[in-house]
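Ticket #4471: structure output looks truncated?

Reporter: J.K.
Steps to reproduce: submitted the chain below (427 residues) through the standard prediction queue, then opened the result file.
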Amino acid sequence: MALAKTKQDATTQRLASLTVPDCAGWAHATRKDALTRLRQMGLPGRRDEYWKYTDPTSLSQSNVIPAAPFHSDETVVFGQIDRLKIVFRDGVFDPAASDDLAMDGLTVERLSDAVQKDIHWAQDYFGVLEKRGQSPVERPLAALNTAIASDGVVIRVTGKPARPVSLIYLHDNETSDAVLHHVIRVEEGASLTLLENGPAAARFNKVLEVDVATGGSFRHIRAQGRDRERRAVTHIFGRIERDSLFKSFTLTANGVMTRNEVVLEIVGDNAVAHVAGAALGDGDFHHDDTVFITHDAVGGESRQVFKKVLRNGATGVFQGKILVKDGAQKTDGYQISQALLLDGDSQFLAKPELEIYADDVACSHGSTSGEIDDEALFYLRARGVPEAAAQDLLTRAFLAEVIEEIDDPVLADDLLERLGAWLQRRG
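Returned output as attached by the reporter:
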């Protein structure tokens, strides 16, 4: 089907200002294929089914809307954790601020170095999972990323590193337009914890491709930066093999526009995939979680747990789907999305979906939104708790289920404490 003219013109205009980075033959072919796919799809528009709740214009247009960097005196997220720090400043690797990348149990390289090599392990994964994730739902901003991303990291995990890897995104330039692409391969029986934090840029487009081999485990925890004016679209593409584990949690506070997409394939028996997120929005805040998990093996387990706290006209979106293919018996799929609306001006838009072609499964989904429970609030007020503090206590209780998805108690406590501090500061 031919692209609508407005969509085609917008895509042509965007691509006219971009160049594909130089790279080796295999990477060049991947980038060229992504560019071809992008031209065929066109950049997203509001008429696209999975963009009807979120206006993609500011994420795909040629010019970047300026965003002032946010400065705070609060402690750095994950600052108390012993970790391997890899720093990007406005989308460019900062070696001076980063640690030595050598660590037992894994190898780390810059994407820009890996794609220059004639033979590299990443050629089996770079752009491959992103391309697989384009069906049945097109994700053109991810294809754009594969075509033009010039920086990022490729990580091959062969053991059980003693420390987590921490990707830190700093934002200094108010018109920066960062495009980062990361590739991670967790080998058989290996494990990795990946931390991410920071706003990255005025506008941020990120792709994370993760392939988890048999018996491997991948845990991912990120805190998206608190810059009030930032815009971001992020994508996680994962392939999860037999007896392996994939867990991802995202905490978001502030940001005028955030779209987080997660596309996972369970391709091995008895694999587990959990995706969760908590978002706190105030005022000019639009936050969209779009998740698609495919079960294509026996005995798989998936969980989608998302909660949003919205006030002063903030908007939250959740689009989640569980697809169970023919033959994926014994699947256990769970999906819940909930919003706490602290005023009458905020809104929560949800589109939960189940598509099941196997008959021996246990799948459920639910979505609710509402105000703070008046009886619970009255109970606390009657015992001398000020109204603002009572609201914060009930809000933290509302978010407790999603925080429990973090199985590291130190990280969970750190983020829960940070949530409490942000609530007390009202932003």
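Triage note (M.O.): checked the attachment and the full token line is present. The first helix runs from residue 5 to 16.
Status: closed, working as intended.
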